[in-house]
Each structure stands twice: as structure tokens, then as C-alpha cells.
């Protein structure tokens, strides 16, 4: 994938005569399209599903993240992105209704990402630079499972957490959340505990709130019997609902 990953995962690549349709969960009348400008990119066309507000974007130029906003006079259901012979790169699309208050709640994680991938700065859209660009008002930092599954050094994990947290703290607030326990014969509990201990150290040193799901759940074996896991690392909908309740309860005390 060109340029590796950014916040949210791989860049969406549009090329050729086909198009990509982004369908929102409800009607909207405005959309922010975040895209990549770089020297080997081409052009793309952005429009609503009814063909209105068609806008051409030339992406060829110095490397950076850019945003364009399109607005409709009538309710829309989707945004259509059309590429050209050269690739066009989409970082994200956010649809909303201008008639209502708009709160952006984004999941910026992706499968397999570690704290190391979140500290990369080789391009303007590399994760750490992208976090500076988006500058969220508030972030929940939940990294660790992929680090202990990939044998990342716990001290390197700690230093990476510090780097990510400090960037987020430049413009907003941060809460740390420890990962879910992983099945012990997949990654030993002693290894997992080393990483959770490092997260606690970061919370203490940076004076950040910590929601310790790992300690709350105790271990994989206890929670799998409650139907909270679908595999050795990932929870079921029931499990994630319990996590959400724990996090929400913690928010009320911070």
C-alpha cells in the first residue's frame, strides 16, 4: 500500500474508471473529505449520490494532508469518489448534518498496529503527524495487545506511549486504557503484566487517567466463560459492551 498506513489504517486508493461509494448510516447534507496530496497522485472527483456538487480535486503537489467540504441543499445518503488513470488517495470521509450539533467520534485504530507504527513520521500522513493534523480534543489511547503479541520490548512500548500521549496532549486531553487480557497460552500473563505495568508508569508520569480493563477483567479464562471473547484476543459484542460500561463509569469519576 502506497505510503503505508495513517490514522484509521491503509489509505483508500482510487484508480481508473471505477468509483468508490461511501454510504453513511443516516441522511446528511455535508461531508468533509480528507485526502493526500503527493507528487505521484492524480485527480479525483467527489460528488453526492445524486450527482450534485461534483468537485474535481488535483492531488499532484508537495506532500501534505488536505481537506475539502461539500454541502448539499437536500438530504444525501452517500459520497461517491471517482479516480483517474493515476492513483488518488483518500484518508477519510466524515458526513454530518449541518442543522444539528456535530460531534466527531472516530476510531483511528487498525488491525495489527503497534505503538511503533503509531510513532512514525516519515510522511505528513504517517500516524504521529496525522494525529497532530487532526488534533482531537479528547482521545482514548488503547494500545498494547499487538505489542505484546509481537514481542515488542516493554520499555520501547512505554517510550512509544509517551510520544503518542505527548502529541495528543498538545491540543487535547488523553485517557489511557489498558488492553483486554489475551489468552494465556497465546501470550503469557507475566508478559502481559509487564506491558500493563508500563502503561501505569506512563499514566503516573504524565498524570493521565487510566481505565485498567486488564486488571478489571482479571484473565481470559474467567471472561470467556461469560461469552466475552470470540477468539484469544478479541471480544464479542457482549464483551465490548462491558468495556464501554466500565469506561463510561470511569469517565464519571475523572
From TrEMBL:
- Spell out the Gene3D superfamilies in the cross-references: SGNH hydrolase
Keyword Hydrolase carried by entry = yes
The protein depicted here goes by the name SGNH/GDSL hydrolase family protein
UniProt keyword annotations, A-Z: Hydrolase
Name one matching Pfam family. Answer: Lipase_GDSL_2
Tree of life domain: Bacteria
UniProt KW Metal-binding keyword: no
InterPro entries cross-referenced by the UniProt entry: SGNH_hydro, SGNH_hydro_sf
The molecular function terms in GO held by this entry are: hydrolase activity, acting on ester bonds
| Residue stretches making up the SGNH hydrolase-type esterase domain | 102-240
